[in-house]
Amino acid sequence: MLNPQLKLNPKIFNTDVEQVPIRQGFGEGLLKLGEINPNVVALCADLTESTKMNLFTKKYPERFVQIGVAEQNLAGVASGMAAMGKIPFISSYAMFSPGRNWEQIRTTITYNNRPVKIAGSHAGISVGPDGGTHQAIEDIAITRVLPRMIVLSPCDSIEAKKATIAAADTGTPVYIRLAREKTPVMTTEETPFQIGKAWIAWIPDIGLADVGIIATGALLHKAIVAAKELEAEGIKTKVLNLATIKPLDSEAIVALAKETKAIVTVEEHQINGGMGSAVAECLAQNYPVPQEFIGVKDEYGQSGTPAELIELYGMGVSHIKEAVKKVLLRK
Amino acid sequence: MDLTDEKIKELEIQANDIRQTIIEALLEAGSGHTAGPLGMADIFTLFYFHVLRHDPKNPAWPERDRLVLSNGHICPVLYATMCYAGYAPVEEYKTTLRKLGSKFQGHPHREWFPALETSSGPLGAGLSQAVGMAIADRMDHGRSYDRYIYCFMSDGELDAGASWEAAMLAGKEKLRNLIAIIDRNNIQIEGFTEDIMPLESLRAKWEAFNWHVIEANGHNFEDLNDAITEAKAVFEKPTVIIAHTIPGKGVREFERDFHWHGTPPNKEQAVMALNELRTLGGKIKSEHE
């Protein structure tokens, strides 16, 4: 059942559950920050509408810098503004920021220790028809490897809004991963959010869970649906929402591994170097258990509808269920 | 601010001391860059001892000007000048450059030496940061505020496209509070700039990006000082000063030779170089002879 303490959206399993793009939450969060924190400024590489930064730029044009299609400069200019006391939020497609400008982020933001907040929209394969060039499925790997970088991957628009507002106050560089596609709204305003704290969205009706599922981003919805279907088949699971990929909530992950002795990770990202890898690094050091990985298997995406792509690349509900059954046999 | 003859004499002596200290530090380090630091010694001296509004006793003073060194590999001259200005002991620099735990990392890192404005090394990234500082300062203080963001760049790093992304934005934003200085020494690590990747017409390129362009003799304090005064008088554009310098300046054997870009002197070469600097190229006798 859904964890009753979290006040999740009761319509989560309905076909008419509200669907909102995660990037919308970023836009609303940034707009809110404009009101509550005068040091927050925004910079964009010609994609304010796509990244929903336009909500901020319309209201606070004097605190916005249009950089043009120049993501390397985007990172460096933001670093310079942070050096003067600003809290810059930069946005583009994740493929270009932190993709194209990774070295500028490393040198001028993380090595330099400047509190720039990087919003990467259109992350994941569900970008859809634009095709593989625009589907960032490496961004978790290249951001979590950077010292000082906090990596956030919210599951829906409401969590994205909370993550964006929280990011302003960390005093560190932050990467916020955002999806383009409309995504089921799973949380509510009352659902807790804290950087570095994971929460368990789904729990068995009674007793301990057989398998722990750890999901990040919009695929949390598929993980919860899979958990519900598995329960009907007699397999008890817990589903952990890992909205902060770095710093990792090791305590919650190890506790889940201790209870279940089997883990499945679910992410819309390359398996290599992604959230599942981060979980495996944690468990290998603390409490090794069998683990199955749902994600992209060392290949690139292509054009298609988001639903088609998620199925074709093995990240659908049926794939999660198969992985759970497979890991059960490895216990 | 005008330069008196007396001040110019002072700066000349200071720049010579800085060059000697660079040679000593590089010899002790056993690696590092020689040509660029010697070539930029006069410009750094002018800035830290005449142009910059700064306070070595209070490096974080909010009202200070900002100096961003984009081509971090010439940090031996940045460090030496800052030490003489009072940011750290000269002796510490001479003995720890590029060594474990040193303030004076092989390329600048502001966490090891907090008086630095930025960490740098990877080329083509400094101007972006300086542009960001200039935009932020204008947001806070308006267009007439009398504080300047200076960015020192190499000519070789203009091969990097990111430099031009930043130049384009500065032109668009008409950042009058931004003054870039290009060390036009015509060399880069593998050869002469015009052989590796031609930069000329450099003036026309910057003008096309909507910058005010001044060319100056990078070894003439008065000429450089006039250029800065002119830059501050320009209101609608950022200014770039193309400073013509001689790489390795002060040691004839090193001058204009790109092989000295990334090589330190050995003991014998250092003795020769120090002797040349101490005797002002043989014009006077040195007590060290």
- Biggest chain pair interface: A-B, 29 and 34 residues
- In the predicted model, the low-confidence regions of chain A spanning at least 5 consecutive residues are none
What order do the helices and strands of chain B follow?
HHEHHHEHEEEHHEHEH
Shape of chain A: globular
Our estimate of the beta-strand percent of chain A is: 15-25%
DSSP summary: helix tally of chain B: 10
Largest sheet of chain B: 5 strands, parallel
Q: Which range best describes the helical content of chain B: under 10%, 10-25%, 25-40%, 40-55%, 55-70% or over 70%?
A: 40-55%
- What low-confidence regions of chain B span 5 or more consecutive residues with pLDDT below 50? none
Report the portion of residues of chain B in β strands.
Answer: 5-15%
Structural class given helices, strands, pairing of chain A?
A: alpha/beta
How would you classify the helix and strand content of chain B by structural class?
alpha/beta
Average per-residue pLDDT of chain B, rounded, comes to 96
Report Rg of chain B: 18 Å
Major beta sheet, strand line-up of chain A: 3-2-4-5-7-6-12
